[in-house]
Amino acid sequence: MTAPALVSVRGLRVAYGDGPLVLDGVDLDLHTGEMVALLGSSGSGKSTLMRSLTGFAPISGGSVHVVGHDMTNLPRRRLRTVRASVGQVFQQFNLVGRLSVLTNVLTGALHDAGPINLAGGFSSAHRRRAMELLDRVGIAHKATDQARSLSGGQQQRVAIARALMQRPRIVLADEPVASLDPRMSHAVLGLLREIAHDDGIPVLVSLHVLALALEHSDRVVGLRHGQVLVSAPTAQLDAATLNVLYDHENDNEEATRVDDHA
Ligand SMILES: Nc1ncnc2c1ncn2[C@@H]1O[C@H](COP(=O)(O)OP(=O)(O)OP(=O)(O)O)[C@@H](O)[C@H]1O
Ligand SMILES: [Mg+2]
């Protein structure tokens, strides 16, 4: 491997409060230019793993390095720097509905400029870049519309433009297509893949639909009960292989059912 990983997680353990380990010895690398699908059933720890990359998970063991920073031992000031370098896309888009599409994208620039920009307005360079990004995601014609007037697929494109506005080093997308129809899901994942491949920004995307992961990702990391059960190039995987992540979801129920029939 030539370039160092932008994200390097080793033996990560996370527990919320006095609860059980929800991540138990997780390893993860993200390299320049790759689109990595994060799979696993509900509660397997996908969101927690993403949160650990932005300092929002209670790490109890192991190591997490993000763009060269050790997240387990980071002064608050540095934490802000790391967060600014991580673009995030969410299931519910998280736009400010009453603001214009353009303003929503511009808020992505606040990460590097701080509150000064809120008072002084955005520079023309920022506005130009925001328009370029809206053009790239195919929403430039909606720039002055209120964000809430857009369809879900359009709003997610705006959210992606906003994430790019902060010039991220990596992008985390937690179930970005869970609220979208199949056609929009493909379009949004195609856009994220383009960001990974063309811009070289690694994208970690959690998904619940195997077919989407198989079609759009370069690599799959599959969690089950907080452990990595699958980690392989997507080309080596198929839906049957990935079913190990879900098959035994109701182990106890299954056992009961078998007993019932005995
Ligand atoms: N803030 C929290 N406090 C306590 N427990 C939490 C918290 N967040 C998550 N958990 C627990 O950690 C485990 C993993 O949750 P997580 O949200 O990471 O799973 P997930 O794979 O993202 O699930 P989903 O597919 O439903 O989004 C679950 O058992 C969950 O209940
Ligand atoms: Mg989740």
Automatic annotation (TrEMBL):
Keywords attached to this entry: ATP-binding, Cell membrane, Membrane, Nucleotide-binding, Translocase, Transport
Cited InterPro entries: AAA+_ATPase, ABC_transporter-like_ATP-bd, ABC_transporter-like_CS, ABC_transpr_PhnC, MetN_ABC_transporter-like, P-loop_NTPase
PROSITE patterns: ABC_TRANSPORTER_1, ABC_TRANSPORTER_2
A molecular-function term among this protein's GO annotations: ATP binding
Superkingdom of this protein's organism: Bacteria
The keyword Zinc appears for this protein: no
UniProt keyword Nucleotide-binding, yes or no: yes
SUPFAM superfamilies for this protein: P-loop containing nucleoside triphosphate hydrolases
Domain ABC transporter: 7-250
Gene3D superfamilies xref list: P-loop containing nucleotide triphosphate hydrolases (3.40.50.300)
Pfam assignment, any one: ABC_tran
PANTHER family, alphabetized: AMINO ACID IMPORT ATP-BINDING PROTEIN, PHOSPHONATES IMPORT ATP-BINDING PROTEIN PHNC
Name the UniProt record assigns to this protein: Phosphonate ABC transporter ATP-binding protein
Source species of the chain: Promicromonospora kroppenstedtii
Name of the coding gene: phnC
